[in-house]
Amino acid sequence: MKRKVTKAIFPVAGLGTRFLPATKSVPKEIMTLVDKPLIQYAIDEARAAGIKEFIFVTSRGKGALEDYFDEAPQLEQSLRKTGKDDLLETLQATNMESGAIAYIRQHKALGLGHAVWCARRLISNEPFAVILPDDVIAADKPCLQQMVEAYEEAPGCMVAAMEVPKEQASSYGVLDVKEDKGALVSLNGMVEKPKAGEAPSNLAVIGRYILTPDVLRNLNKKHVGTGGEIQLTDAIAAEIAEERPVHGFRFKGRRFDCGSKSGFLQATVSFGLERPELRDDLMGYIQNVVSQQKAAE
Ligand code: UTP
User: Fold this and answer.
1) Which helix (H) or strand (E) holds 179?
2) Ligand 1 atom at minimal distance to the Cα of residue 108
3) Which of 70, 207, 238, 250 could cross-link to 135 by cystine, CB 3.0-4.6 Å?
């Protein structure tokens, strides 16, 4: 019988160098879009998809991330006393069930594949999800939920996919498409960060995955790939080479690359405009700035 996806790995052990100096002391995943840290968006998405166990692969300096998930009884008490019920509700929505979170350390940033492999002992013989919190996806139905539903019809491995401009393909894992069936795409292979002009398509892998334990076995080989890192893309591509099913899944939604400054700023504006209490103010400000810039040109 096919197993349900109830565990998710959140690899958060990267160095976050693109956000230095902030990431000298603040984990990238704690940085906030409006008022919610990136990690909370990822957790909310995982919960909506039916995930019950949350496995964080962390590293030195990520203490604030672990603290974030502790309950805050004093704060809750003070909000209760002062009648700030909506804030209390917001705070309580972030509480996690005891034992639902596990932390594993990646001793050295050897790559995303290595980070996922570090969590191998917490995954038994079952499919699992991987969520990269710096890919934030705004969608009516959360992206991982879309994937879990599609997975019912297409078991094996599944990677979220999105069309990107050809000239940007070399920043991503790229799909070599065998058959394009619309939302689902079957594959001949996958290439991590292909050289300019060598990308097999413009369908790029985005940070949501449903994987089989076979991928962890492939990662056991510790094959070093592009950039001298142990790449998750290579371990998934090895599944295709073994003729086990791997699908790309074109999700519905808007993805923000919050690992980059520009993507993070775009997400901040976009999520700000979604908030009814901020929308008018923010829109007025943006219009003002744009017209001042135009006048100055
Ligand atoms: P990135 O490629 O964005 O790297 O990792 P990074 O270190 O976070 O950021 P920059 O490029 O230095 O600014 C993608 C995801 O994989 C995780 C990161 O934490 C992030 O969620 N990762 C990457 C690890 O957990 N371990 C690694 O060795 C590499």
Assistant:
1) strand 173-180
2) 28
3) 207
Residues flanking ligand 1, CB < 6 Å: 11-18, 28, 57, 106, 109-112, 114-115, 132-134, 259
* Sequential pLDDT tens for the chain (297 residues): 467 999 999 999 999 999 999 999 899 999 999 999 999 999 999 999 999 999 999 998 888 888 898 888 899 999 999 999 999 999 888 888 888 999 999 999 999 999 999 999 999 899 999 999 999 999 999 999 999 999 998 989 999 999 999 889 999 999 999 999 889 999 999 999 999 888 999 999 999 999 999 999 999 888 888 889 999 999 999 999 999 999 999 999 999 999 999 999 999 999 999 999 999 999 999 999 999 998 988
Going from the Cα of 59 to the center of ligand 1, the distance in angstroms, rounded, reads: 11
14 C-alpha to center of ligand 1: Å?
Answer: 4
Residue 4 DSSP one-character state: P
Give yes or no for a contact between 67 and 103, defined as CB atoms under 8 angstroms apart: no
Ligand 1 pocket, mutate which of 12, 59, 106, 107 (most atoms under 8 A from CB): 12
CB 101 within 8 A of CB 69: yes
pTM over 0.70: yes
* CATH fold of the domain at 7-259: Spore Coat Polysaccharide Biosynthesis Protein SpsA; Chain A (3.90.550)
Place of tokens 């950039």: 227
Q: Residue with the nearest Cα to atom 22 of ligand 1?
A: 14
